[in-house]
Amino acid sequence: MSRFANIKVGDRLPEKNHTATEISLFLYNAAIWNPHRIHYDAPYTLEIEKHPAIVIDGPLQGDWLAQCVTDWLGQDGELVTFSYANRRASYLGETLTATGEITEKDEVAGTVNVRLGIRNEAGEIIAPGSATVRFSEA
Amino acid sequence: MSESLITDAARSAIGQSQPPITVEVSRREIQKYSLATQQVQQKYLDGDEAPPMFLFGLLRPLTPIDELGPDGIARDASLPDLPLKRVMAGGTEMIWSRPIRPGDVLTATKTLSGIEEKQGKTGPLIFLHYTLNVVDVDGKPVVKERSTRICR
Q1: Are the beta carbons of A63 and B51 separated by less than 8 Å?
Q2: Is the dihedral of CA A40, A46, A48, A54 positive or negative?
Q3: Distance CA B38, CA B45 (A)
Q4: Does residue B98 have a pLDDT over 90?
Q5: What is the C-alpha to C-alpha distance for residues A26 and A19, in angstroms, rounded to an integer?
Q6: Which of A73, B112, B118, B136 is least buried, going by the fewest C-beta atoms within 10 A?
Q7: Which residues, 6 or more positions from B33, have their beta carbon under 8 angstroms from its beta carbon?
Q8: In the beta sheet, which residues pair with residue A105?
Q9: Helix (H) or strand (E) holding A82
Q10: Which residues of chain B are within 8 Å of residue A58 when distances are taken between CB atoms?
């Protein structure tokens, strides 16, 4: 039986924890050419922009959501749609968890819809998202 | 009903596109992004294919350092002049036709598709809606993106 045939609505994708560090945030912001000081300059971030700590980039959390779905999919298909929104800020020192759950399956189209979420340590979903993937051998 | 915060000048920007930008994708740039985001799939780490969110960094403006503000942020040409100055990312939705690969020469056109005024818990909010269309050298679609920014 194909992998697609075994997928059921309600199935959960493997969860993954992400703990950003000064080094990972520096490299991420260098890679995307983002010089905003709230991602690497702690005194500035606290005193001027009044955050409690260095801010974890919203789009980096978006990337963790994308990884959740593309790592689960692997080479078995392709990503068709991907969406996310940042609802609450997150700060250096926090561990965030990328989660996903199958919400819909279209047997004819060979597609699966996934609800995604970045969960903080307090259990809140601070970045909800969704994705549609198409399996090559549905 | 109070007076609208959206000026006529801002409203007239709806439907206007910024000049398209063309970018050339290198394997090394994909590899740097993949390492920085701690990807696990070999196709990303080897730079054979870009992770979906690579697009975000790929299209960021390359602003000279002496044109950055004291916060490190460049002035954003896609922002109309509005009375609410604090800008936050809202949501992003991408529709993919194919992944981005090294050697791609992509052209991206960003259009302000709408402006909405809403009343938030802590005051007025302005929602800016954008569309982004990314095509390859043959004009074939690669990805379309709809995104929202929130000014407060």
Answers
A1: yes
A2: positive
A3: 9
A4: yes
A5: 14
A6: B118
A7: A31, A32, B50, B51, B54, B57
A8: A112
A9: strand A77-85
A10: 89
Residue to substitute from A27, A70, A76, A96, interface B, most B β-carbons within 10 A: A70
Model's pTM, two decimal places? 0.93
Closest to B55 measured CA to CA, from A84, A117, A101, A14: A84
Q: How far apart are CA A132 and CA A78, in angstroms?
A: 9
Q: What is the pLDDT of residues A44-103, one digit of tens each?
A: 999 999 999 999 999 999 999 999 999 999 999 999 999 999 999 999 999 999 999 999
Each residue's pLDDT tens digit, B3-59: 788 888 788 889 888 899 999 999 999 999 999 999 999 999 999 999 999 999 999
Q: Tell me which residue in A64, A78, A85 faces B91 most closely, judged by beta carbons.
A: A85
Partner residue opposite A24 with nearest CB, options B32, B38, B62: B38
Structure tokens given for B51: 């992770």
Q: Does B89 contact A49 at a Cβ distance shorter than 8 Å?
A: no
Question: Which CATH fold topology does A12-20+56-135 show?
Answer: Thiol Ester Dehydrase; Chain A (3.10.129)
* Cβ within 8 Å, pair B72-A36: yes
Provide the pLDDT for residue A43. 97
Q: How far apart are CA B39 and CA B44, in angstroms?
A: 7
- Retrieve residue A67's tokens: 């990884």
The residues spanned by each domain of chain B are: 8-151
Whole-angstrom distance, CA of residue B84 vs CA of residue B65: 26
Q: Say which CATH topology domain B8-151 has.
A: Thiol Ester Dehydrase; Chain A (3.10.129)
Domain ranges of chain A: 12-20+56-135
* A113, A138 contact by CB (below 8 A): no
Confidence category of residue B2, pLDDT binned at 50, 70, 90: low
Cβ pair A11, A101 in contact under 8 A: yes
